[in-house]
Design goal:
Largest sheet: 7 strands, mixed
Order of helices and strands: HHEEHEEHEHHEEH
CATH architecture: 3-Layer(aba) Sandwich
Distance between the termini: 19 Å
Shape: globular
Structural class: alpha/beta
Strand content: 15-25%
Number of strands: 7
Number of domains: 1
CATH topology: Rossmann fold
Mean pLDDT: 80
């Protein structure tokens, strides 16, 4: 995956995304929002906000910042956000290079993004960096099936990843284990548990600062 292919794929999806993916992903979206938005006056970052389908689900006293790499998806999200007091900003931004200071958000959530970004380890490291210690980091995504037939189909679709806009065979274990980011739960989300929600807690600040994508890759 690379940014040009991601933007190209989601430009194609933009006008039909809500009708096709909205009902399929609705349960997972609501689950993620409930876990991310548990108290009054929270500042929450939604990474990969897309067309903003989840925005009305946040509490009215929340302050939600949504980012996405697709200007076509963001255009629809901005229309949806009109009149929603909980939306602080909707910004075009690379999820692997978040333009926010450390500890900027009470919760950080990425819905259906981990298999889209080129480097999932950088995504998770950036989500941890901008989340306050004690805050929640949530990832919902499709991960490779344990069913042998489905697994073969997913692997067979791998060459089409750039066209589809996501990796079809991403493994749950490919999400890195980062110091100070505790994985506290993995639960089924959406249809037949085909998608899963991975719940992390940012337990502490790293003594030498959060890991960067370069450090993880190196």
């Amino acid at each position: 995956m690379d940014l040009p292919s991601i933007r190209s794929a989601y430009k194609r999806y933009a006008l039909t995304y809500d009708a096709f993916f909205g009902p399929i992903f609705a349960g997972g979206r609501r689950m993620a929002v409930q876990l991310a938005n548990t108290a009054a006056n929270q500042r929450i970052l939604e990474v990969g906000v897309g067309t903003g389908l989840s925005l009305p689900d946040y509490r009215e006293d929340a302050r939600v910042v949504g980012i996405d790499v697709s200007p076509d998806m963001l255009k629809i999200a901005r229309e949806r956000a009109r009149g929603l007091s909980q939306v602080e900003a909707l910004l075009e931004m690379d999820a692997e290079q978040l333009a926010f200071p450390d500890n900027s958000f009470d919760s950080v959530v990425a819905m259906y993004v981990a298999s889209v970004v080129p480097h999932p380890e950088r995504l998770l490291a950036e989500m941890q960096r901008v989340c306050i210690p004690g805050g929640d980091v949530l990832v919902i995504n499709h991960f490779a099936s344990n069913h042998p037939v489905v697994r073969r189909m997913e692997r067979g679709l791998r060459p089409l990843s750039k066209i589809l806009g996501f990796r079809t065979d991403m493994e749950l274990d490919s999400l890195p284990r980062l110091p100070g980011l505790e994985r506290i739960d993995v639960r089924n989300a959406n249809l037949f548990g085909y998608w899963k929600l991975v719940h992390y807690r940012h337990d502490e600040e790293l003594p030498d600062g959060p890991l960067t994508g370069e450090a993880l890759a190196g």
